[in-house]
């Protein structure tokens, strides 16, 4: 069974500094996708970045980058130059195919990031 | 933004009553999902659908049933609500390819008293 682990319930970072949010995953499927979502206090789920299992390069989206280490089964999110608006819950998720061919997205428990001024 | 609407947005009900939450999409996406979000647990998959009348269980499906009679609507039913089902429920939709993100609804806050 697939599994997503986020070991940091809470993280603090100073404004303008970089921060890394950890995510490890477990799957036996060679084809899978990894996602990061942000959930601010308003509650909506905001897609940040995607990494495919066959992608050779680490994904980047503006200030967000994904440190993908396939052999270690880790997909850490790096936020550069933190801003106060980055304070939120961050969820790592993995998408893979079931034996029947359908797809589902499984989430970690999340990391609450607080950016201090 | 993806056209996805959850209703109701808030509901308070009593233990033992049936409750149905609705997710409606205008994107014609194949996949629809129901998650619940609880502090310390993140988002947990309840049920999902990969087509009309095609559904499957997630990790926390006990006490819940779903139906999808047309592409745009995915219903989540609590046959007999319990206090442990107090939660925020999110619907999500997606095209069903591994590299495509899911779009989420705004959530339904359900309180079972």
Describe this structure in words.
The complex is a heterodimer of chains A (117) and B (113). Chain A is mostly beta strands and 117 residues long. Helices cover 0% and strands 55% of the residues of chain A. Chain A contains no helices and 12 strands. In chain A, the strands form 3 sheets. In chain A, strands 2, 5, 6, 10, 11 and 12 form a 6-stranded mixed beta sheet that branches. Chain A has a 4-stranded antiparallel beta sheet with strand order 3-9-8-7, with no helix packed on it. Chain A has a two-stranded antiparallel ribbon with strand order 1-4. In chain A, strand 10 and strand 11 form a beta hairpin. The radius of gyration of chain A is 14 Å and the shape is globular. The relative contact order of chain A is 0.33. Chain B has 113 residues and is an all-beta fold. Helix content of chain B is 0%, strand content 58%. The relative contact order of chain B is 0.33. At the A-B interface, strand 5, strand 6, strand 10 and strand 11 of A face strand 4, strand 5, strand 9 and strand 10 of B.
